């Protein structure tokens, strides 16, 4: 079977200024999608994008601005010490504690996404990894872990380090009694894993509430994971959503 052909081209950049602008645009659009899907919970939740030149700095949402109102010009740049070096609004302390350690531990990770979405946090209370009960859930087969060491809100770098250690080389962590966290080589990929992981939590909660779901066997789950769980597949899946949000809410691009 041939690979699925996408009408979208995987982006490549020669100028870091173009790459930065692209990442910031995707990041602002990602927040609009999080808002659309209802992933907000007050001021909680953050998505970060590593700067393409200052590799230990990342772009992130400012504390207290609603996902649904995020624009490129609202994003702030945070350095390795947690200081805001572009923008005039504060950073969420938990965003720095968690994301700085993930970006430091994983040079391949350009973006990380976390929020207190309802089905993710409900599933996280069970302290179990997702099972391969659907084709979509197979994207996470063998690629996610449960971080079951809940000690209150994450404000300490040390806890961020332990979360990054638990993540290992994977694409997602279920933070017990807290919510989901996903990573990717592009903003697009990290955000898609978050959206589809939230929906996979929802699907498993529904299936287990209704009965005793039958798992896809290990060989098929591993094969399906290779088909739907790669970084290009994750990037590709979200392109229609980005096209839609950019058309619906073009003000997100304001710089
Ligand atoms: Zn959180």
Give a nutshell description of this structure.
The protein is of the alpha+beta class.
Structure description:
By secondary structure, the chain is α+β, with helices and mostly antiparallel strands. It has helices spanning 16-37, 93-105, 118-124, 157-167, 187-210, 218-228, 231-237, 239-248; strands at 46-50, 58-60, 76-78, 84-86, 111-115, 144-147, 172-175, 179-184. Strands 4-3-2-1-5-8-7-6 form an 8-stranded mixed sheet, sandwiched between helices. The longest helix is centred in the C-terminal third of the chain and has 24 residues, at 187-210. The protein is globular. The model has no long low-confidence stretch (mean pLDDT 95). The structure holds zinc ion.
How much is the radius of gyration in Å?
A: 17 Å
Q: How many strand units?
A: 8
H and E order:
HEEEEHEHEHEEHHHH
Strand order of the largest sheet: 4-3-2-1-5-8-7-6
The main pleated sheet reads as:
8 strands, mixed
Distance from N terminus to C terminus (CA atoms, Å) equals 43 Å
Small ligands present: zinc ion
By secondary-structure content and strand pairing, the structural class works out as alpha+beta
